[in-house]
Amino acid sequence: MSIKIADLTVTFKNQVTAVNHINLEISNGIYGLLGENGAGKTTLMRVLTTVLKPTGGTVSLDGILYSEGNYEKIQQKIGYLPQEIDLYPNLSVQECLEYMGELSGIPQQECKKRIKYYLEKTSLTEHRKKKMRQLSGGMKRRVGLVQALLNEPDFLIVDEPTTGLDPEERIRIRNLLVDFSENRTILFSTHVVEDLAATCSKLAVMKKGNILYSGDMKEMLSTADGCVWNCFAKSDIQAREIEKNYRVSTKQYVNGGYMIRVISEEKPEVQCTQGEVTLEDAYIYLMNK
Ligand SMILES: Nc1ncnc2c1ncn2[C@@H]1O[C@H](COP(=O)(O)OP(=O)(O)OP(=O)(O)O)[C@@H](O)[C@H]1O
């Protein structure tokens, strides 16, 4: 499954251009979409799900052009987990999924089979009789994921699936996405760098409607080669001075002071050694270039 996005633009009535002439090619496996709040990720995803019509440019999915006449065919190939998911609170998990399946036109027996399979996969079988409103945030997100998979989509779009979840549940969702990425394409949007470092090898970075980078994670790391510095600060005062003068990626308390990672093309004028680039460092470097 390959998705080609060419010169895509979305400008809203209020004149905000949320997606600005972007080009992107997304192929099998998990593809990360990284960007701060308001970068345009949700808008792009809404275009890809056919919910929103772009102002300009084209999208095609395995050669099928996004156009009015093709929307139904495209929708059959897509699963979508939106950022805000609040499925029928008074239905049980099972009822809710059966209803969603019915809405998607999946034959009843086949739908029940798939629900059983995916509830098992997402460790929700024992909770299937619970009302949706009784579930934790993480469980709701997992039901949302099952809902998105019911039509066995070739292209799964997940919008900030880990936001607001505890660390254990975040790891669980990430691992599920890795499992479900076999034989399909997953677009995984997030503003959490760590989500992508753990799951994908290709990604795009968005800022204010533009693509700052797209391609291999490894290549993205190399863009910040030589620009990461481990600086040691003995005291709070020294640490604050470094934070004031340089762009800091992380700060960690270590024995006898702080280890501060600074992103800078020039060597900082403090005691420091060059560090290996992490995705977080490369992201900060790109965002501030
Ligand atoms: N329907 C709309 N009408 C007008 N402006 C919109 C609309 N939807 C989004 N925007 C604006 O478009 C920009 C991009 O928003 P979008 O939701 O796509 O970003 P995002 O990267 O998904 O961020 P977040 O993680 O906060 O959802 C923002 O400035 C937002 O205010």
UniProtKB/TrEMBL annotation:
Coiled-coil regions, chain positions: none
The cross-references to PROSITE patterns, in alphabetical order and at most eight, read: ABC_TRANSPORTER_1, ABC_TRANSPORTER_2
Alphabetical list of SMART domains matching this protein:
AAA
Query: What molecular function terms (GO) are annotated for this protein?
Result: ATP binding; ATP hydrolysis activity
Matching entries from InterPro entries are given as: AAA+_ATPase, ABC_transporter-like_ATP-bd, ABC_transporter-like_CS, P-loop_NTPase
Q: Does the keyword Nucleotide-binding apply?
A: yes
SUPFAM superfamilies with a match to the protein in the record? P-loop containing nucleoside triphosphate hydrolases (SSF52540)
Question: Which keywords accompany this UniProt record?
Answer: ATP-binding, Nucleotide-binding, Transport
Concerning its family, UniProt says:
Belongs to the ABC transporter superfamily.
Write down the superkingdom of origin: Bacteria
**Record-linked PANTHER family:** ABC TRANSPORTER, ATP-BINDING PROTEIN
Q: Residue ranges of the ABC transporter domain? A: 3-233
- What's this protein's name? ABC transporter, ATP-binding protein
